[in-house]
Amino acid sequence: MTDRTPTAVQADLLPPVLPEVAAAAVAALPPRLHKRLDATVGRLAGVPVGRVDGGVSVDCGAEALVTLTPGPTGAVTDAHQARCSCLLAPRCLHRTAVLVACPVADPATHPDPASAVAPSAPDSHGAKAGRTGRTEKSAAGRAGQNTAPTKAQRAAAGALWRAAAAVLAAGVPAAGAVPQAELLRAAHSARLAGLPRAESAALRTVRGLRAHRERQAGHRLAELVEVLHDLLYVAGRLAAGDPDPALVGILRRAYQPDGTLEVYGVCREPVISANGYAGVVTHLVAADGRRLSFGDVKPGGPDRARDCARAVTEMGAVAVNHAVLARGGLRITGTTVSPDGRLGAGKGVRASPLTETDWSTGPLAELFARPLAEVVTAQFAAADDPEDPARAGTALVGCDLMVVGAVGDQVLARELAPATATDAGPERAPVPDGPVIRLAPVDSHPMLAHVANLRRLASRPGLRIRVVGRLDPDRASTLHPLAVGPVPGGAATLRLPADWHGRADLGYDEIQGSHLPPRDPAAMTAPVLAVGADAVAESPLWRVRRLVELAVSGGRRAVVEAARGEGTGLTGPLRRAGFATAATVAAALADESDRRGRDAFGRRTDPDPDRYAWAWLATTAHLAATERELIRSSWTAPGSVDL
């Protein structure tokens, strides 16, 4: 039975397709049709889609109906699951274009039944890749038993390097279906060779290329630059035989039994991911101090993230209400825990509720035990370790702040001195010469309450708040708050309802005027009129950032034209500001972009993509390290505000 109601072809209407299936379809397409493939994929945006038993159909014109019937996992895992009614099928343009238009399936979530590779556990949080546990090989490597990549692994890494270097040289506009298929084919080879980190980077690169070409909302060019850098970095080092086990990444994310476990809720976090997943994650702290989490993230959009505010998720035989868990606790038996702190939900799990606790007692108080500068230094020290779940941007931090104003949708605040380090009475004073901290919304989606809550907090300068959030590793002295609560013993602080148990989840709970203290001229500060410059945004490093991003968005020729146009304007300001190395690597990238050799007869040859890719990689790596150091120092340097 078929429903042929016309609907625009969109990624969320089509089933995901395994990388090797899409890559094989492009490889089987006659070369004369390659130039028409991108245009055909673009035209599918207005093609009607119908529902059929077990799948969908795409009407591609007269005598060309493409039918997709995904397997049990919900993804197209075999070439026979994609059929076209035209005479040229299966090597036809219609079938190939539809497969290319489908989302890229994660082989860990949608394994190929015929594959001999053991799948890793799915990412139940839908969060961005990189929060990894240790593989067996990685653990052995950390014990000093590093093993060089095998011949097959080096060959797979070399194929990934060549595909990624070609994409970089071409730029996003020219990185259409055929270059993407080469990346997908190389990603499949990396999976077969046991290189999960390289495979993950390749798949994220393809998704980023599609998002940028389609101008998807919420996509940032900086994210594509970051993932392409990771892909080239990992593939290049593996192809050269580097034995560092961190380059291999996850082979299997195994959940291990953890016996009896007592956990206490910290807060809820709504999740809206770019790859079509949404839901809620509740952050927890175990009695022994470990940071854990329990999530309910499934395919869906922003409405699912909003509706999960009081979602009930099955944890074995227990029904867990996330709103209750975030403000209470559980004593769990028979649970399993992943290396990155995710609680399993197996059939043998049993749990009983614990008495609610606030942030100032028990293991939750450890979140606020250390000064921010000390926490930031520790997290940035782990920034280069892809297997450390405590690195900047992933681990939760807690602090007590005083609101001093707002800039745009950001709240400006200062860290409060420890309670024993001030004689200012019941209201603790800010840390002398401490930095101005920016509180930026985790997600600005209008269905969530982050922005509205931050505006409410910013309306009361002088307000003392206790904050749980994450560091922003890409912006100076910036924190993404997930929840707020009253400062213990303070007067000019929040007055939350009793059933909130001393905390407000900024994504779900709506702070009202009645939750704020009365306006007291003696307790409130004057609004901020100006704030000190951002060390990263105001430095001349933006010139290097622009060149690096231009290389991705426009390709090699765009870098050539930009370098010719700027001349010494690119390196001069960098050297005068003391960024001599940044000037050197940027100049090397500009020179390499225009370098072409000559053959034995003196004729100019095609430029070398390898040397250009290494130059871009060196520039990007130095830029990231320099920006990271500036951001780290912004948390310890004195801040300046005009009141």
Automatic annotation (TrEMBL):
<protein>
    <recommendedName>
        <fullName>SWIM-type domain-containing protein</fullName>
    </recommendedName>
</protein>
<feature type="region of interest" description="Disordered">
    <location>
        <begin position="109"/>
        <end position="151"/>
    </location>
</feature>
<feature type="compositionally biased region" description="Low complexity">
    <location>
        <begin position="111"/>
        <end position="124"/>
    </location>
</feature>
